Amino acid sequence: MYQITQEACPIVNTAPQFTMRLRDRRVQVSYPVRLTCQIVAFPVATVTWAKDDAQILPDDRHDFITDGNFYTLEISHTELDDSGEYSVTASNSVGGSVTCKASLIVDKGIRGYIAPEFTIELPSSITIREHEDLKFSAHVEAYPCVGITWHRNGVKLRPTRRQVMTLDHDGNVDFTLVHASRKEEGVYTCTASNEIGKVESHCTVTVERESNGRRTSQTANIPKLNASNLP
After folding, report:
1. Comparing C-alpha atoms, which of 115, 174, 111 is closest to residue 141?
2. DSSP state letter for 170
3. CATH class of the domain at 14-107
4. Domain spanning 114-208: which CATH class is it, in words?
5. How many angstroms separate the Cα of 84 from the Cα of each of 101, 112, 171, 195?
6. What's in the GO CC field (predicted)?
7. Peptide bond into 32 cis (omega under 30)
8. SS3 90
9. Which residues pair with 48 in a beta bridge?
């Protein structure tokens, strides 16, 4: 009789690779959250976690869990400041390191949302001269942050070199139109919106025709002298 022996397959060294990447997450403040990925590597990879490029170390709220090829960062009690970009980096002696990233948003939940409200409205009307710059500002409060759109006479406006629209983190809204022409007068509408609702503010803009600006010659009012009028 022949005896059949089975030799163990040799283990091949493998550089780290992600077979399941991190996913973006959103969670209500104070709730726990887990960020999980799957990494295949031999020798086993060394894994580090970071938030906004700063390494995360285990503490009362942050825990690292390894289950086979699955690696998890658990935040047991989230805070608003936990929002940011999270990354996991894996490396071993075979090859370089690999990294994947995901965003975490921690908010107050639907009950904490605030519909947009203009605390400072656009002026009800503005009159400028042709070729002057058109500028107006407003202030909006909302949670979460709002998106801003502009319309003139119902037509959506887009940013250009002459037309600048800004919104900062404090809710300050600004609009500038350089060298406005008469065809750009009309009703300007600023719309602020988020998941809860939207609000509008309106301004009627009148562009007056530019005056001629030519000076009348002072000599035009001096009467002409005729030879017959001379003594």
Report:
1. 115
2. T
3. mainly beta
4. mainly beta
5. 10, 19, 20, 20
6. cytoplasm
7. no
8. strand
9. 89
The set of residues, in sequence order, having a beta carbon less than 8 Å from that of 129 and lying 6+ positions away, is 207, 208, 210, 211
Question: Same CATH topology for 14-107 and 114-208?
Answer: yes
List the structure tokens of 10.
Answer: 């040799």
- Determine how many CB atoms are found less than 10 A away from the CB of residue 229: 8
Pair of tokens at residue 18: 């992600």
Tell me: the pLDDT tens digits for 73-107?
999 999 999 999 999 999 999 988 999 999 999 98
**Count of C-beta atoms within a 10 Å radius of residue 54:** 8
Distances (CA, A) of 169 to 146, 152, 195: 10, 25, 17
> pLDDT digit string (tens) for 101-128?
999 999 887 777 788 999 999 999 999 9
